[in-house]
Amino acid sequence: MAAILFTLAMSGALVLWANADVASAYVAIYEGALGSRFAITETLTRATPLMLTGLAVAVAFRARLYNIGAEGQLYLGAVAAVAASIAMTNEASELALPTVIAFPIMIAAGALAGATLLLVPTLLKTRFKVDEVVTTLLLNFIALLFVSLLLDGSLKDPTAMGWPQSPTLPSELEFSKLVERGRVHTGLLFAVVLALILSFVIRYTRFGLAMRAVGANDRAAAFAGIGVNATLVKVALISGALAGLAGVGEVAGRTGYVTLDMSPGYGYSGIVIAMLAGLSPIGVIFAAIFVGATIVGADAMSRSVNVPTYIADVIVATALIAVLVASLLTKYRVRWR
Amino acid sequence: MTELLALLIDQAFWVAVLRIATPLIFGTLGVLLCERAGVLNLGIEGIMVAGAFIGWLTVHSGGGLWTGVLAAAIAGGILGALHALLVVRLPLSQHVAGLGITLFATSLSYFAYRVLFPKVDSPPKVEAFSEMRWLPIPVLAEQTPLTLFAILLVPAIWYLLYRTPLGLALRAVGESPYAVEAQGIDVIRLRSGAVIAGSALMGIAGSFLTLAAFNSFFFNMVNGRGWICVALIVFASWRPGKALIGALLFAFFDAAQLRLQQSGGGVLPYQLYLMLPYVLSIVALVLVARKAAYPQALMQTYVKGSR
């Protein structure tokens, strides 16, 4: 509660600084994010990739595998989906395979690409004890440059007038829309179902127990007969695949093609979302909607009352820090000095 | 091969190496102070953005260049104090708090920039540091005083760490905080001080970008340099001298990559050249990882009196 008030006060002060009326700014954020049917569909559209990257991070962090590379995994997933779809089309740019076969192949390609990108730093961690935080961070830059390379080369859309942009997916492979006149797509349902499955897996399966044990204390887990490295590799495959799916969802559900500004840091926001959710998959659903609403609302507000959109990131960052502190204060009784 | 040799005797090349290395020296020394005290500071990327912005803003609004550097250091110190509050005084996850600081500092800087300069097409410029032409040392004379400052900071930090009681305590607190506690030293104050000082250096690293390397502030200008410093410190096995060598080595490859990009243009896609520094950082990490002598208590939270 105090965390929410603190966040509101902080962002209110910033709005004031930008010479705008605080009350009307908050109304604008609310209206823009949740005030109309269209606003809600926009918020859910934003929340879809955020849910998947949030899940990717939550799963990895549970096993104390610090995957900071969801951004790169998302881009590789998106590019792989497009590449797979190109491989499955004939000269007349029609699908050479029936949709029921081509669709899962596209999704698997994206998931596989994301998983592979996270597998590299995870193997470096298990084999050579290289800290995965730095390697996953650096791989984000490498992945983005790699995507840029592809968009300039073999995956360039010749009709895009020189813009680094991939060809558009065939329409059969696009996710269908959930509502009329909105951009929200079946990727959302996909993400929610995955969250429910993950929640079940973490709580009730042997693998989930192994994962939590490794995260809580890897040496104790090893004593208990759990294969720590094998568990980490499996977790990495799941986490990377989820982030890759976020990329597939963006391509197949929203844009239709890959550009270099496709994700405004969804991978990094995934970390915030996972933490806001206390690493719980179900919590990720709600945290992703909160962050999605903040971004969409702040966009709307910046148009109406002229406050820079970067306020969305400030709100999210402040909320993260405030929630972390608040959760700690409820757990412990901190005495000053 | 001859191309490479020509490069090695080209003075302009070495000037570029030193210029690229400077923010990395500041940043890596900042990381060194934090990690030697046992605190991972992933806030570095955001602290560099804040330092770049505040340093530039101070000069733009009429302050002197060194005032700008000082302001950047103070901004870094404040963010460091926030990080210390979260992970030293409160036992929060150092990974998450650091990333939170990066997100917070980056977005706040961008927000402030947009509030203060709502509609500018070309970023406003300031009069940046000029080269030290009076210096009789060839390559260094082409650098700004900040580079000299960075290089002099290396022995200074070495002296602090290895020749003073404070340095001894600081290194000890990164190895075993409870042993330091038993010595009657306030672990929380010591660790917080190290994080604040280290973060101030990270702020200066950022200010180099806007006050020496370039003369204006623009988005994404830090572009992963902070993360590179976090990798460099492992490569440098947490030693100031090796940190300098690591930064120079990295800058050497980065400058070589830039040069090859210009001369061999068109042979390979330019993205491959840009990837090279990041790939090399990872390779370097793999090479040293097995024998990396991490400070024993790095990322270990300390709760007063819990042992």
Question: What is the secondary structure topology, with strand pairs?
Answer:
The complex is a heterodimer of chains A (337) and B (307).
Chain A: H1 2-17, H2 22-34, H3 37-62, H4 70-87, H5 99-128, H6 132-152, H7 187-204, H8 206-216, H9 218-223, H10 228-255, H11 266-276, H12 281-305, H13 311-331
Helix pairs in contact in A: 1-13, 2-3, 2-12, 3-7, 3-10, 3-11, 3-12, 4-5, 4-6, 4-10, 4-11, 5-6, 5-10, 7-8, 7-12, 8-10, 11-12, 11-13, 12-13
Chain B: H1 2-8, H2 11-36, H3 44-60, H4 65-89, H5 94-116, H6 145-163, H7 165-175, H8 177-182, H9 187-213, H10 225-235, H11 240-263, H12 270-289
Helix pairs in contact in B: 2-6, 2-9, 2-10, 2-11, 3-4, 3-5, 3-9, 3-10, 4-5, 4-9, 6-7, 6-11, 7-9, 10-11, 10-12, 11-12
Commentary on this structure:
The complex is a heterodimer of chains A (337) and B (307). Chain A is mainly alpha-helical. In chain A, 72% of the residues lie in helices and 0% in strands. Chain A is globular and about 55 Å long. The mean pLDDT of chain A is 88. Chain B has 307 residues and is mostly helical. Helices cover 70% and strands 0% of the residues of chain B. Chain B has twelve helices and no strands. In chain B, α3 (44-60) runs antiparallel to α4 (65-89), α3 (44-60) packs across α9 and α3 crosses α10 (225-235). Chain B is globular and about 60 Å long. Chain B starts with a helix and ends in an 18-residue tail after the last helix. Classes of the chains: A mainly alpha (337), B mainly alpha (307). The interface between A and B is large, with 46 and 44 residues.
